[in-house]
Amino acid sequence: MSGLRPRAAHAIEAAGPGPERRRVLNNNGTIVQFDNVGLRYGTGAETLSDLSFSLRHGGFYFLTGPSGAGKTSLLKLLYLAQRPSRGLIKLFGEDIVTMPRKRLPGFRRRIGVVFQDFRLVTHLSAFDNVALPLRVAGVDEKDLQGPVSEMLAWVGLGHRASARPATLSGGEQQRVAIARAVIARPELLVADEPTGNVDPEMAKRLLHLFDSLNKLGTTVVVATHDLHLISSIGSFEMLRLDRGTLLDPTGALRHPPRRVDA
Amino acid sequence: MSALLSTMGAADRRLLPEGRLAGPMPWVIAIMMFLTVLAAAAGLGLGGAAASLGAGLGNRVTVQILEPNPDRREAEAVRAVARLQALPEVESVRRLAPAEMAELLEPWLGAGGLEGDLPIPAMIDAQLIPGARADALRPAVTAAAPSARIDDNGQWLAPLGRLISALKWLALGLVALMIAATAATVVLAARAALDTHRGTIEVLHLMGATDVQVARLFQRRIALDALFGGLVGFGAAALALVLIGQRIGALGSDLLGSANLPATSWLALALLPVLGVGLAMLVARATILRALGRML
């Protein structure tokens, strides 16, 4: 696996789009800031309430909590699939709550998302699915062939590049989804249960991919139930959600004690 | 339009599954285009017929000298021709020669029908200047030829002209309705396509695709469907028009013959599929952008 790391990093570097990526965020390096954020779907009760926290540029965050705690809803706010019902969200130093809709695509291109249900485009091959963010960003075909092939090889699917999602196993689909999320080397990577359908070895490998990206400067937010995986990451912080609120609003418990293996 | 279509690479085009011609839209557009071309051809043909009618017969009068005595009839005819030629409202005067009269009456009298002592009126054809009224000629002509009867062709052609004009406007109204129906079809097809591919669109959006990028995918597909439908519809209509033209030609009618389409009209009809594609693209784009605008 270690031998694969540099190739992936190279692929990520090669795929990295233009100067906007290196944009300075803000003075204190905060990439995401939530201030008293609430989210309500329709006229129902608030799914998320009074969320106030910030994520620093280059951090690695695990978002944990029981099912129904609001993890996916929080991630939707992060990857701009929802606007909050109230409160302030700053992303990359800009208020995205009141931001005009036409500016959102530019921000979305700076975010990679691994969806819980993968959301692969069913009629496209694995290669074309992974290439999707680069094509959306207008990368030339000749410039994306190499990085996409390398990324697929890195997630162990180089031989399945032309396979349609329906012919891939759940784990393979998940790896394609992850490759698609990281191919454009996003500034912020948001992953919703990214290791739910893969074996422990592949789960560790994927987390190491996230770790590699993180070391290259990508802020990573991973929602997961699997607390065992957390120990495989060197440095991280935790956000605990329960019933739509943060259990650790002060951030004092963000750095849990490390498990010491015998 | 081709530039707009070519701005998208082959890989981008694959973002939506290639289901072209699978749905009913191309065939609906083909039917619409068939009817539109027929209606437009009818409008153009009737317009040509109305113009031909007005120019050919509507501005002419026929003067008949009904005097039974051949000598006096001849004298009145000569005076009437001279008088008509002197009138400012008259552009040209022509007296029908006996041979022409014989030809005209042959279906009723048979060959040699004029050789007996049958009192056949002398006939004078006068072409008036535009805007002149036949009534203005009556006093002068009857003064020169008391037995003269003046038939105003425009008067009896007027109801026919009005009917042709009404049919022409009806045909053009049908064209307008067909265009509106085609636009409505495209709106429905675009909405259906959006619903079908909503999952893909959401993924593209979340990856930062702009509304215009997404709309371009759909408008290309819909333009191709409209092009296919337009060409099929136009081809079928053109075939029908050629066949109808042949039937009209076989009738030998001057009036119906004037409804045949000149080259300029065919050119106008050939533009309809092109306009149809442009209309479909614009409507699809507007519909999709409006629908996408409701998404975050």
Notes on the protein architecture:
The complex is a heterodimer of chains A (262) and B (296). Chain A has 262 residues and is of the alpha/beta class. In chain A, 31% of the residues lie in helices and 22% in strands. In chain A, strand 7, helix 7 and strand 8 form a beta-alpha-beta unit. In chain A, helix 1 (5-15) runs antiparallel to helix 5 (141-154), helix 4 packs across helix 5 (141-154) and helix 4 (126-136) packs parallel to helix 6 (170-182). Chain A starts with a helix and ends in a 16-residue tail after the last strand. Mean pLDDT of chain A is 83; it is low at 1-27. Chain B has 296 residues and is of the alpha+beta class. Helices cover 70% and strands 8% of the residues of chain B. Chain B contains 11 helices and 4 strands. In chain B, strands 2-3-1-4 form a 4-stranded antiparallel beta sheet. In chain B, helix 7 (153-196) runs parallel beside helix 11 (263-293) and helix 9 (211-251) packs antiparallel against helix 11. The radius of gyration of chain B is 31 Å and the shape is elongated. Chain B starts with a helix and ends with a helix. The A-B interface holds A 79-83, 101-102, 104-110, 113, 119, 121, 123-124, 128, 131-133, 135-137, 141 and B 9, 11-12, 14-17, 199-200, 202-211, 213, 293, 296.
Task: Please name the defining characteristics of this protein.
heterodimer; A: 262 residues; alpha/beta; four-stranded antiparallel β-sheet; 22% strand; B: 296 residues; alpha+beta; 11 helices; elongated; disordered N terminus
